[in-house]
Amino acid sequence: MTEITLRILVCGFCAYRLARIVAVDSITSTVRAWIYVRAFAQGYNGEAIVRSKVWAWAYGLASCMFCAGFWLALASYALWVNVPGARPFVAAVSVAGVQAILANGDRAAFS
């Protein structure tokens, strides 16, 4: 396996796990709710009205696993390449990403 292939795999799994933490996991649901309250107000008929375009953009980023994943993939790769001291962190989160993928597959197989 080449060095670049290893980097892409490690950073990809790292970005997957971080994106899932940001956009899906319950540990960050209060942060997403906090951003939502700043982004939107409730209209008379119950629809969401944009209160702040910046906060609406931030909520869109924080609630979309693919959107967050893109930026977190860039960040994890930049850390891996430019900050050698961050490699253990990126590798550890990568292992957690592999575990999350396997757990999701396991859950799907038994449900």
Description of the structure:
The chain is built from 5 helices and 2 strands. It has one domain (7-105). It is elongated. The protein has a two-stranded antiparallel ribbon with strand order 1-2. Strand 1 (40-42) and strand 2 (48-50) form a beta hairpin. It is mainly alpha-helical and 111 residues long.
Give a quick precis of the structure.
The chain has helices spanning 3-23, 29-39, 53-63, 65-82, 87-109, and strands at residues 40-42, 48-50. The chain is built from five helices and two strands.
Q: Mean pLDDT across all residues, rounded?
A: 90
User: What gap, in angstroms, lies between the N and C termini?
Assistant: 35 Å
Count of distinct strands? 2
Low-confidence segments, given as residue ranges, are none
| Main structural class | mainly alpha
Number of domains: 1
Radius of gyration: 17 Å
Largest sheet: 2 strands, antiparallel
Any chance you could write out the topology, listing elements then pairs?
Layout: H1 3-23, H2 29-39, E1 40-42, E2 48-50, H3 53-63, H4 65-82, H5 87-109
Antiparallel strand pairs: 1-2
Helix pairs in contact: 1-4, 1-5, 2-3
Name its key features.
111 residues, mainly alpha, two-stranded antiparallel ribbon, 5 helices, 76% helix
